[in-house]
């Protein structure tokens, strides 16, 4: 079986232009292969570059060196050199992303936010609505909130809308940056179920999980980051 995604010899240094162009090495010779149906958990202390690696895998951060290969049938697309329009196309139906924070879209209801990725991929209105309702119910977002814009929701409610949106489509690759960080144990458990179901259908998942119990339930293996001290050396 061939990987769904390969990161090869990734290097990245932040240059802080407003601080005398200080160099902050964040990723050193990172190598990672992700296969369908598994969840790889990025493991390392705070500041070890976990979120930076995940953002690089999403094409959000430009890496300085290395390849970020995404399987496209017989071909590979290198995110490190891809055009913006190719990255946008990948995000529409290939790579899903859930971070700790919902990017609230003004005036769009919670239901619309969850339906949006499905509608953009040609799924019918009624099918998208049914799936969105199932996800919002699974994540215990009260029905009275579904037609409201999430701007006024609590942090945990916003996060659950965000997660519902991230799991609305069956993306082949899912990137999860601390999706359960602001959730209580019961809701975190509901997210664990979504992750396990995604693996079951063959999703390749890379995640960062603050809670060890969540990590232990979802991880097939850990990818150890280098520690900041090693990076600086
Ligand atoms: N956009 C950025 N610009 C400059 N430095 C950054 C940026 N993003 C992250 N960093 C720095 O890179 C290091 C790694 O951060 P991060 O990837 O968020 O680590 P983690 O997710 O493991 O806590 C930290 O020292 C952080 O301050
Ligand atoms: Mg982080």
Explain what this protein looks like in three dimensions.
This protein is an alpha/beta fold and 233 residues long. The chain has a single domain (37-66, 82-232), classed as Rossmann fold (3-Layer(aba) Sandwich), CATH 3.40.50. Helix content is 35%, strand content 26%. The strands form two sheets. The protein has a five-stranded parallel β-sheet with strand order 6-7-8-3-9, sandwiched between helices. Helix 3 (110-119) crosses helix 4 (125-138) and helix 3 (110-119) runs parallel beside helix 5. It starts with a strand and ends with a helix. 36% of the residues are buried. The protein binds adenosine-5'-diphosphate and magnesium ion (MG). Adenosine-5'-diphosphate binds at residues 14, 24, 26, 44, 46-52.
Q: How are the strands of the biggest sheet laid out side by side? A: 6-7-8-3-9
- According to CATH, what is the topology? Rossmann fold
Fraction in helix: 25-40%
Strand residue content: 25-35%
Largest sheet, in brief, is: 5 strands, parallel
Number of helices: 8
**Low-confidence regions:** none
**Helix-strand string:** EEEHEEHEHHHEHEHEH
Q: Give me the count of strands.
A: 9
Note the gap between the termini.
37 Å
Quick one: overall form? globular
Q: Assign the CATH class.
A: Alpha Beta
Which molecules are bound besides the chains? Answer: adenosine-5'-diphosphate, magnesium ion
- What is the correct CATH architecture? 3-Layer(aba) Sandwich
Structural class: alpha/beta
Q: Going by CATH, what is the homologous superfamily?
A: P-loop containing nucleotide triphosphate hydrolases
Domain ABC transporter: 5-233
InterPro entries: AAA+_ATPase, ABC_transporter-like_ATP-bd, ABC_transporter-like_CS, CP_lyase_PhnL, P-loop_NTPase
GO molecular function, one term: ATP hydrolysis activity
Pfam family, one: ABC_tran
